[in-house]
Task: inverse folding
């Protein structure tokens, strides 16, 4: 009663309880708890543990009052969750100092909760913006399946987070020539996504006058396209980013491919007779001034499948290691009868299964070309994104 009177004189609103259960019922709204060690029904440490277990949305400062002064008693009291320990007889000055210390702790906790509330609001706003950014990035590749006379091209792309740094594309640059590209910008997140958006504009078939793969409406050789992008990255953009890339021309009538690999994972050609690894490695784009990008030439035959993967495919975690090139080839062999949307869904499901969940650790992208042979007609079913077509 004397303690309650003193606290009231200092301006505190005081609630009194005679037992532990009664105190638990009253402590729901309390900021500071002053509890004796010896109580009916439960002792002070037991009451403290029960108070901590209430799951309150704000912190309560707990002070044990006792005549016990042994070190083991102090340690036991603090271990049960008490914030402070005050020995009897209680000094008014010391008590007031301990309460002020508790008030500072509670004020900091309140400030932290308020800042967390503000941060949650900001996070929600950023999350909404990133979700919109993902939709905008997906619009950079609005069509994922293309049917040409003699070839079908599938574009596989899925960011690992809201937005990513991978970009794949395909566009005709003549009645018999198709450009293919796969890009992986260094890093992740918004900066990488902004770079992919800029690169998509530079390779857009809808703006031929600004397309770096064309000059005066005519296609540039792949090695020159990559060299132009390298100069632009180093001399005009002047950013700390770089990207890996494969850029290729596919001639539909003959199956001829002219390809440049710039630090990107090796493309592979899947044939009935085996697998061929393509490319020469090369420097990433935007790292080395004056870097040369030699082209390689090959000829696809009817039934060949050309795959240009990102490292998100080959480095997908698989058991104790990575999927690797051999694992990717085996996966695609198992899906040889699928094309278009069905192939996309099957490959992503296989990768997620191997990674142990649906959230892949890196952006996944690939350009997949099924060469049907010269003179083969377009497939309207592929243009309509049908789930599967038999292989020729």
Result:
């Amino acid at each position: 009663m004397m303690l309650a009177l003193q606290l009231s004189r200092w301006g505190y609103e005081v609630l009194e309880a005679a037992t532990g259960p009664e105190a638990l019922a009253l402590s729901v709204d309390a900021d500071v708890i002053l509890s004796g060690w010896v109580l009916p029904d439960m002792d002070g440490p037991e009451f403290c543990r029960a108070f901590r277990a209430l799951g309150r949305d704000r912190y309560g400062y707990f002070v044990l009052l006792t005549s016990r002064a042994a070190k083991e008693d102090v340690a036991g009291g603090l271990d049960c969750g008490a914030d402070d320990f005050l020995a009897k007889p209680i000094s008014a000055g010391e008590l007031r100092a301990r309460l002020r210390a508790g008030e500072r702790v509670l004020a900091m906790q309140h400030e932290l909760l308020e800042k967390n509330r503000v941060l949650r609001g900001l996070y929600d706003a950023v999350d909404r913006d990133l979700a919109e950014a993902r939709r905008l990035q997906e619009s950079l590749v609005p069509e994922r399946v293309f049917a040409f006379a003699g070839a079908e091209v599938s574009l596989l792309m899925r960011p690992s987070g809201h937005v990513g740094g991978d970009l794949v594309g395909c566009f005709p640059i003549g009645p018999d020539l198709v450009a293919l590209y796969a890009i992986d910008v260094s890093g992740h997140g918004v900066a990488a996504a902004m770079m992919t958006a800029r690169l998509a504009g530079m390779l857009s078939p809808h703006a031929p006058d600004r397309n770096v793969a064309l000059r005066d409406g005519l296609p540039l050789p792949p090695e020159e396209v990559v060299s132009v992008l390298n100069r632009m990255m180093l001399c005009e953009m002047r950013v700390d980013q770089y990207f890996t890339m494969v850029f290729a021309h596919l001639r539909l009538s003959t199956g001829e491919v002219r390809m440049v690999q710039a630090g990107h994972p090796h493309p592979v050609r899947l044939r009935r007779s085996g697998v061929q690894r393509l490319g020469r490695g090369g420097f990433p784009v935007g790292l080395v001034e004056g870097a040369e990008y030699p082209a390689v030439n090959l000829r696809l035959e009817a039934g060949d499948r050309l795959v240009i993967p990102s490292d998100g495919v080959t480095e997908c975690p698989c058991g104790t290691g990575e999927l690797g090139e051999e694992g990717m080839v085996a996966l695609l062999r198992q899906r040889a009868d699928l094309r278009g949307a069905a192939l996309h869904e099957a490959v992503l499901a296989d990768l997620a299964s191997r990674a142990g969940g649906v959230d892949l650790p890196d952006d996944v992208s690939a350009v997949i070309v099924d060469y049907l042979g010269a003179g083969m007609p377009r497939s309207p079913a592929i243009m309509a994104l049908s789930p599967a077509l038999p292989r020729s």
